[in-house]
Structure prediction request, 447 residues.
Amino acid sequence: MDENYDVIVLGTGLTECILSGVLSVDGKKVLHIDRQDFYGGESASLNLSQLYEKFKPLTQKPLFLKGRDRDWCVDLIPKFLMSDGELTNILVHTDVTRYIEFKQISGSYVYRSGSVHKVPTTASDAWSSKLLGLMEKNRMRQFLQFIAGYKEDDIKTHYGYDLDKNTMSDIYDYYGLQNGTRDFIGHAMALWPTDDYLNEPARPTYERILLYCQSVAKYGKSPYLYPLYGLGELPQGFARLSAIYGGTYMLDTPVEEVLYNEDGKFAGVKTKEGIAKAPIVIADPTYFPDKVKKTGKRVIRAMCILDHPVPNTNDLDSLQIIIPQNQVRRKHDIYIAVLSDVHCVVPKGYYLAIVSTIIETDQPHVELEPAFKLLGPRLDTLMGIADLYEPINDGTTDNVFISKSYDASSHFESATDDVKDIYFRVTGKPLVLKKRKTVEEEEQEGL
Prediction:
């Protein structure tokens, strides 16, 4: 294999595959290696046998669970795509959507005072919501009108506030919003995992709420999209994009040695196929354990197999439920992603509810009890705990650029921020996606 490349990518997580795809489109010669024999890394989707081998290795998969192995596609990292979010824009712009079919998530719910409620995202939603009293409905309506009507160059729409100086608490106070209302705005719409945002400048929260509302407006029902056959389809889609533009993929290929030059900069890798040389490497944290650190946070994820829809959600085939931390006396939110056979991730008649949160105690499974109570009876539950890692350095000294672990958030916006950050550090310029050629243009050019 002894050959020279512009970039070597280690690991086939979504972050690595996106970067492999966009760098290949940029004209870089990319070699992509993974020690595993399947795509996705930590963001893979597992079949039923793989799922039990990973989380219950001493237990055979239950005979009462019907369907073939391949009828089950269970995500290791449960996340949805915002329909107007950054990852969706990347997918559309690079036309990776030609390989993947998406389906909308049917509902977005928030936990409040022991029960779940649909998240109101428009003035009319606010007016009909059971979350709000009569006076609060009017205040919420005015707040949403402010979000929708705010224009940077029209000071009349600012109502005397500066989003870069005033805090989000200042904005809430202006509209007189109650604590419960602030809870679901901040956690179920802005999707903040904690309350730290309250005392920080309001602009990021404004942008998050606007993204949520625009994503709902795009298709209705909820702001979320999900790929058929699981999130593991996303890395494969970008891998295919990379391959079309000349990228080389090697699965089931462990790295035997990482090579550096006399200046301590990355020079290549040695595998069973030989030596591959490149001046730059992009990798997930598992490939460079000496160059990453634990963030001090751990995530617990529980894959819950059900034979019924989640109670009190109108029997929806899919939804997200967010349990704001204040509602259950925690410091971090609890997220529940619910899917069914319409997404081709379980056989007909089954539902998959994946619960995740940041661990706060020495009894993490107990921390998920508020979510378990909402789900009703479970056929089986498989739990996994993962430390979160981040690179110690930015990679510019040794040309080793490492991605961050996937957090407990319900969507991919933080992951795409990591993509853009790594791309800038690797290339020295912001990520500006090149519009991919049409199928006809690619066929004419022999791509």
